[in-house]
Amino acid sequence: xxxxxxxxxxxxxxxxxxxxxxxxxxxxxxxxxxxxxxxxxxxxxxxxxxxxxxxxxxxxxxxxxxxxxxxxxxxxxxxxxxxxxxxxxxxxxxxxxxxxxxxxxxxxxxxxxxxxxxxxxxxxxxxxxxxxxxxxxxxxxxxxxxxxxxxxxxxxxxxxxxxxxxxxxxxxxxxxxxxxxxxxxxxxxxxxxxxxxxxxxxxxxxxxxxxxxxxxxxxxxxxxxxxxxxxxxxxxxxxxxxxxxxxxxxxxxxxxxxxxxxxxxxxxxxxxxxxxxxxxxxxxxxxxxxxxxxxxxxxxxxxxxxxxxxxxxxxxxxxxxxxxxxxxxxxxxxxxxxxxxxxxxxxxxxxxxxxxxxxxxxxxxxxxxxxxxxxxxxxxxxxxxxxxxxxxxxxxxxxxxxxxxxxxxxxxxxxxxxxxxxxxxxxxxxxxxxxxxxxxxxxxxxxxxxxxxxxxxxxxxxxxxxxxxxxxxxxxxxxxxxxxxxx
Length: 487
Ligand code: NAP
Hints:
The chain is of the alpha/beta class. 39% of the residues lie in helices and 22% in strands. It is built from 15 helices and 24 strands. An eight-stranded mixed beta sheet has the order 2-1-9-8-7-10-11-23, sandwiched between helices. The protein has a seven-stranded mixed beta sheet with strand order 14-17-18-13-12-20-21, with helices on both faces. The protein is globular, with a radius of gyration of 23 Å. It starts with a helix and ends with a strand. The model has no long low-confidence stretch (mean pLDDT 98). Bound molecules: NADP nicotinamide-adenine-dinucleotide phosphate (NAP). NADP nicotinamide-adenine-dinucleotide phosphate binds next to helix 8 and helix 9.
């Protein structure tokens, strides 16, 4: 039976977990976590700082050698068990996630199952780490190429997917044999605390994963980067913070994986099946209340179908029920914090000042809670701020185009390149456009591309490296080549 959220929260750790023990912050400080649907404080956690950070990274470094020596099959089985436990407890984890983050329960369940899949996928990858053995071209040497864990890893995640963003990092790190220090987002740290205990229950030994929650990210992460003990940093979050971390990591030449911001174009050609395109745009726009790096930010629609498409999209958007995500029947939850609503308000105001028309929504919904009405804007000017900024809210901004060349040029007119979407009934046309889009991922007649078995990641300022898929584990492996002369 699913416990009440009060009981689930009461059973969570303190916020700092080092060498298998939950601890208070060395400073004695704490910080609060809020429910975005009510504004209420739901938990008070230990507020980590530099001393806690040092203890955590020392622990990770001390355990690295022994952990790397644990057989891959054993590491695999820990991940497999963690997958099974998450699936068993999907309702409980979803309730916790909705309470701290806001997304409707059905979406939270979806994220738990999606996040759990990273544990299953990497359980399967752990036992398939490959090397290479061959003769040199001149026949004089034997080349033996092995893959070793990169070493202690720093993991940092954003607030918008409290489970999937971290299982996507812990899965491959455990599979590869890396120890970890982890700083969750301060807005939504509770799901991480749950997962920390769940991994211990699944058999992850003490000291392999340390967690330090904090209200002052830099005071924990910078000491980790400068410790000389971490060998890699894997970050998911905004491009701005990612650039700061890249600069900091350059000081110690740390390996980095960067999953950064997006500004996804969503192209609807005139021959698209509009029913498919509408389902896809609703998924790509409204998943997570629009608070996703993969969210359709600029919806480019062929001029001959834009009026029909906009009307039908407005009908779909205006029929959504906005409210507390824990309540049955809610389609759209609150935004994560009050300033997120202010940001969306400003973007819509700017678009309207520059000539956009509001077909539905267009305003905040009175609280308590951080609610904004599902909104459709049409005739959005290409120079409106909404075109160059991640909206991170339930606002669909529509722009007309006349030719495929124009659509591709508009789509690529951004420094970001995470995901793009194209809707057309012509395979040839869709494939040609997909090849021309500057993006790490393309959804062709679909609004959902995320899959643990596929490589997730971006080009340009959307990031470096890929998570998941056949290459996801490589981010946590170092290649070693041994040369043996042939005598
Ligand atoms: P954010 O502000 O960049 O924060 C991400 C993480 O970095 C949080 O844990 C944050 O801690 C921490 N952080 C902030 N400043 C830091 C610093 N100076 N040093 C070290 N860590 C620091 O991003 P967000 O608002 O949480 O998330 C939204 C962004 O993430 C969007 O841009 C979205 O596109 C991107 N995102 C990308 C992907 C992807 O896979 N490409 C997936 C999801 C989200 P605090 O919580 O304490 O601030």
